[in-house]
Amino acid sequence: MTAAFDPADRADLDVSGLPTTVFGPRDIMWWGVLGFMTIEGMTLVVAVASYFYLWRQPGTWPPEHTLLPSLGWPTVHVVFLVASNLVMMRVSRVAHRLDLAALRRWMLVATACSIVMVPLRWLDFLALNVRWDTNAYGSIAWLTVGLHGTLLVTNTAEMLVFTTILHLRPTERHFTDAADSAFYWYYMTLVWVPLYVMVYWGPRFL
Amino acid sequence: MRAVSPSEITRADDRELHETLERVWGDRPGLVGWITTTDHKRIALRYIVTTFVFFLLGGLNAGLMRLQLSRPENDFLGPDAYNQVFTVHGMTMMFLFAVPMMLALGLYFVPLMVGARNVAYPRLNAFGYWVFLIGCLLLYTGFLTNTGPDAGWFSYVPLAGPGFSPGKRSDIWAQTVTFTEVSGLIAAVEIIATVFKHRAPGMSLNRMPLFVWAMLVTAFMTIYSMPWVASASLFLASDRLVGTHFFNPAEGGDALLWQHLFWFFGHPEVYIIFIPATGLVSQLVSGFTRRPVYGYPVMVLANIMQGFLAFGLWVHHMFATTVPQLGSSFFTATSAMIAIPAGIQIFCWLATIWHGKPQFRAAFLFVLGFIVVFVTGGLSGVMISSVPFDTQVHDSYFIVAHFHYVLLGALFPFFGAVYYWFPKLTGRMLSERLGYWHFGLFFVGVNVTFFPMHFLGLAGMPRRVYTYIAETGWGNLNLLASAGAVLIVGSVAVLLVNFFRALRRGDRAPDNPWRAETLEWATASPPPSYSFLHIPVVEGRSPLWERSERRPVVTGLSTEVRDTLVTTLVDALPDSRHYDPRPSAAPLYAALALGITFITLIFTPWGLPIGGAVFFLGMVRWAWPTLRSYREQLRYEEGKA
Lengths: 206, 641
Description:
The complex is a heterodimer.
Chain A: E1 13-14, H1 28-55, H2 72-96, H3 100-126, H4 136-168, H5 173-205
Helix pairs in contact in A: 1-4, 1-5, 2-3, 2-5, 3-4, 4-5
Chain B: H1 12-25, H2 30-36, H3 40-69, H4 79-114, H5 122-144, H6 169-197, H7 210-241, H8 255-289, H9 296-309, H10 325-337, H11 339-355, H12 362-384, H13 387-393, H14 397-426, H15 432-458, H16 475-505, E1 554-555, E2 563-567, E3 574-579, H17 586-603, H18 607-623, H19 627-637
Antiparallel strand pairs in B: 2-3
Helix pairs in contact in B: 3-4, 3-5, 3-16, 4-5, 4-6, 4-7, 4-8, 5-6, 5-17, 6-7, 6-17, 7-8, 7-9, 8-11, 8-14, 9-11, 12-14, 12-15, 14-15, 15-16, 17-18
C-alpha cells in the first residue's frame, strides 16, 4: 500500500496510516539480507574464479595420486537441500498469512532440516577424498565446501535462536523475518547446486 | 510553518515535540550512553576521529621514511624497521584512514542529506565501528611490539607466505585486513539501504545530492571488491596456518593468483577513495559558487562509469608479470578510458565555477588545489597505462609519485570538506585565516615532496629501498622531497591548531553558514539526536534553494518509539513505517567476540570453533529481545505506541 502522495500538494504529509509489517523489497530488513547475500556470493565467486585459475596450472586435475571425489553423500545432501525448499515455501506462505501457530510448526520443521544438514556437510568434506594440505586442488575444494558450510552453520544457529524467540516472544516483525529466512534458504540452494557440480563432477570432466 | 531544525521552533507544540524526541532518540548519559549508542552521527564521528588519529600516525611513518631517505647511506632506520614502517604506512593510509574516512563521511552525512533520522541498521553500524577499532589496535599493537607487517601493503606472496615470512607479521596483515573489510562491508550495506529506503518523501533518485550518488556507487563497489581481498587474506592465512597450497607452485598453486585477487580489490579500492572525493568536490563547488553543479545527469553517469571501469583495470598493476600481450593491450585501453568520465567531471565543475560567483573560502581553495594535483596524477596515470613505459618505471619512484598525486588529490577535497562540514559536526566555525595557511603549506608541500619523485623514478631509484649510495646522485632530490614533507607536517599542524582553537573559542555556527542547498543544513549545528524535528518533504534537487511559501513536512510518526519512515526505491513515496530498536551494548559484545575469533586464528586453527562459539553467544545476546523492547514493539505494532 502506498499512501496517496502528491508533492504538488502543499499540505503536510500524514504517514500515521502506513503499515508496519511489509514483505520483500518493501521491507528494510530484506535489503540487508540481500546485501549480505551479495557479499557472501562474492566470496563464492572468488572461490570459483580461483578454482578455475588453479585448474589452468600445469598438471592434471585432480593431480596424480589424488582420488576423484565420491558422489554418494554429496548427492544425497544436494537433493535434500533442494527438497527442503518445499518446507521453506510453506514457511514463507504461512508468514505472509500472519498465521503464528502454523509458522511456529513449520519453523520447527525447517530448523530440523537445517540441523540435519550440518553432519551432511561433514560427509561432503570426507567425500572429497583429499586433504586440504595435500595439494592446491585439495585446498580449493575444501575452501569452496567450507565457505558454503559457514553459511549452513550460521543459518542453523540463526534458525535455532529465531525459532526459540518465535515461541517465547513473538511479534509481527517475525513474520517478515521468517519470509526473509525463506528467501535466504532459496539463495543457499541456488549457489550450492553449481558449486556441487563444480567440486564433485568437475574433476571428472576437466 | 512547522520547524525542521530546533533553532526554528516558534510553536509550543514543536517545542514539546523537541523534548519528546530528545527523550526517545537521545542516548543515556555518561559511559553507558557512550557504549550503547546507535546514533549514526556519534558513531560516524567516532570513525572520523579514529581514522584521523591513524592518519596522523601514518603521516608519522611517512616522516620517518623521509628522514631516513633525506641523505645517502643514512643509518637512522635499519632495513627491518624500514620495511615495517613503509608497510604500516601504506596499510594505515589505505585501510585505516582513506577508505574508512570516506565511508565515515557517508555514514554521517548520507542520512542527513536524504532526510533520515538514522541509518538503516543502527546496531549493525555500531558493530562495524567496534570491529574497525579492534583491527586498528591489532595492527599498531603488532607494530609497536616489533611484529608489524613488513611485506608491503599489498603483501605479495611468496615473500609474505610461510616460506619467507616466518613469525606473525604477515598474519597481522591478514587479520587487520579482515577486520577493516568486515567494517567496510557493513558500512556499504548501511549506506545502500539508507539511500534506497530511507530517503525523505519526494527525494526521487534524480533529486539526490551528488555526494549521495557518489557514496552509493562507492558502496556498491565496496560490496563487489572487498570480498576479494577478504578471501585472499583467508587463503594467505590458511597457507600459513594449516598448510594449504593456494600460492605454492610446488603443489599446484600459483603466486600470481595472489596478485589477481589482490588487485581485483586493490584497483577499485583507489576509486572507493576517489569517487567520494568527487562527490565532495561537487558539494563544495555548488556550495561556494551558489550554483547547482552543471550537468547533473552526466555527473551521475560519470560516477557510475568509473565504478564499472574500476573493475576492468586491475591487470595494469601486473604489466611486469607474464600476462598475455593481448590482455595487457585490453587493460591499457580500459586504463586510458578512465580519463573520459574524469574529464567530464572536471569540465562540469569548471563550467559551474565559470558561471557561478565563486567565494574563495579555504574550503574552495582545496577544490582548486584538487583540480591541479589530481590532473597531474591523472596525466602520469595515462603515461603508465602504456605497457612499454610502465615496464620501464615499474617499482620505481615514478610510481610512488603517480599514486601519491592521485591519492593526495583525493585528500584535497577531504580537507575542503573538513572546512565545509566542521561547523555542522561541532557547531563551531574554523578560522579562515588558518585555513589559508593550511592550504598554502599543504599545496606547496605536496608538490615539493612528490614532484621530484618523478625524476628520481626516471633516474632509476627503486621503491622501498631503505637507503642508497651517494654516487647514484639521488641525494639532492631526496633532500628536496624531505623538505617538502616538513611543509606537509607544518600544514597538518596548522589544521590541528585550527581544530583546537575553534573548539575552544571559535565562532558559533548557524544552521547553514554557507547558505548551501542540501538537507544537512536544514537542521541545527551540531544536529540534535533525532536530526530533524519534522522530516521535510523534498520538492526539488536543491531543497534549501527551492523558494517555497509553505514548506510541507512529514507528520504522524510515533513519538514514543524510534519510528522511521520507509519510502519507495525510485520515487521515494512513503510506503511503510519501521521500528528501530533501542540502543544496546550487544554490538560491542559481538565485536569483541569476533575480535577473539580472528585474533585467536593468528595462533591456532582452534580459534574457529572456540571463537565461533563465543560469537554465537554474542549474537544470541544481540537478537534476544529484552522484555521492555518486546512490549514496546508489541504496542507499536498494535498502533498504541
